[in-house]
Write a sequence for this structure.
């Protein structure tokens, strides 16, 4: 009887210890701030001293590029996505991650249906 209780207890512990959805050590507020870094698009020279900002507005988070355009973000743990956003002649989408004070934003641009992949890597100021 003791063996069956022990086995039942071990089985219960194993089954109840499922892995939690770990979204990482980041909170949404960790993203907020100004990041300075390098912006590089396929086939182009990198541009230094580029600023991106992440702002919180009424509970929503936005990434603001060097030109002042803002794009709504969806944050999950230390990762984020930017859903497809249509501007006049430009479509932007992307994803990225926060690693300590460094942010990476991989953007997919479409200018008059011509695709362009760009990456921003910056450090929080």
């Amino acid at each position: 009887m003791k063996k069956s209780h022990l086995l039942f207890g071990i089985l219960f512990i194993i089954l109840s210890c499922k892995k939690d959805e770990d979204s990482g050590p980041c909170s949404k507020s960790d993203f907020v701030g100004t990041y300075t870094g390098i912006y590089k698009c396929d086939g182009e020279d990198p541009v230094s001293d580029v600023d991106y900002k992440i702002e919180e507005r009424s509970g929503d988070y936005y990434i603001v590029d060097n030109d002042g355009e803002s794009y709504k973000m969806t944050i999950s743990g230390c990762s984020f996505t930017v859903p497809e956003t249509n501007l006049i002649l430009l479509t932007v989408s992307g994803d990225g991650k926060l690693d300590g004070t460094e942010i990476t934003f991989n953007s997919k641009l479409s200018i008059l249906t011509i695709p362009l992949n760009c990456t921003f890597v910056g450090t929080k100021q």
Observations:
- Confidence is low (pLDDT under 50) at residues 3-23.
- The first helix runs from residue 2 to 16.
- The CA atoms of residues 104 and 121 lie 5 Å apart.
- The chain has two helices and eight strands.
